Amino acid sequence: MTSKTRSGGDANKQTVGEMSKNDLISIITECLKPVQETVKTLKKEVEGLRDDVDHYSYQLKLKDDKISDLERRIEESEQYSRRNNLRIFGVAEGPKEDTNQVVMDVAKKIGACSITVSQIDRSHRIGKPGSKPRPIIVKFIGYGPRRAMFSAKKALKGSGVTIREDLTKQRLDLLKQAAEAYYEKNVWTQDGVIMVKVGDNRPIRVRSASDLESLIEKHSPPS
Q: What is the per-residue burial (b if ≥16 Cβ within 10 Å, else e) of 88-112?
């Protein structure tokens, strides 16, 4: 009885070796369906995450652009606030000096005789005392006297005294980079804008690091 039952039950079963190829494929396909569904679900989730990443990346870029634009505007505003300022370097420093009078002496020396002491808003030395005379920063009450003095600064050539515009840290760093690339004699400032002379071309305005990078790409610095 037991042997018959066992033999009868075995008659309804097939070993893997007895199955046809199609039967095997059918069984494997059925077994893989849950896996395929899981893969599809995961694929959709990954695509959704990719869309989220793209969206947030775009939003982040917009914010970065806004921040960069805001920083640029702030820096331009700060530079504009210095438009009536000049910095004078190389003037001997004395005890209890009147820096307004020192500025007037320099103005007289370079022939800017139209400037009067009443046109000076304020002036003072900047930095800590040392072995070299500290520069003087002077703010005029208007752009006119400032321009008159800055335009006459060529008369100081060879005297050891120089007059420069009052630049923000960003502009000053950019000026130094431009001078290193194209030599100091070919780089100067005009109303806070850095000017670079390249070959026989007209002077090129450089307002930002990207401007300087573009200039270097178009006109390789002299070796």
A: beebeeeeeeebbebbbebbeebeb
Query: Helix (H, G, I), strand (E, B), or coil: what is residue 223?
Result: coil
Tokens of 179: 């001078």
Specify whether the CB–CB gap between 219 and 199 falls below 8 A.
Answer: yes
Q: Which of 90, 154, 81 lies closest to 125 in space, CA to CA?
A: 90
At 37-91, the pLDDT tens digits run 888 888 888 888 888 888 888 889 999 989 989 999 999 999 999 999 999 999 9
User: pTM for the whole thing?
Assistant: 0.72
Residues 178 and 187: beta-carbon distance below 8 Å: yes
Amino acid symbol at 23: D
How does pLDDT run across 32-51, given as a tens digit for each residue? 888 888 888 888 888 888 88
Q: What is the pLDDT of residue 55?
A: 85
- Give pLDDT, residue 11: 46
DSSP letter for each residue of 84-119: TEEEEES----TT--HHHHHHHHHHHTT-TT--GGG
Alpha-carbon distance of 119 to 27, in angstroms, equals: 98
Identify the bridge partners of residue 195 per DSSP, sorted by sequence position.
188, 205
How far, in Å, CA of 33 to CA of 46, rounded? 20
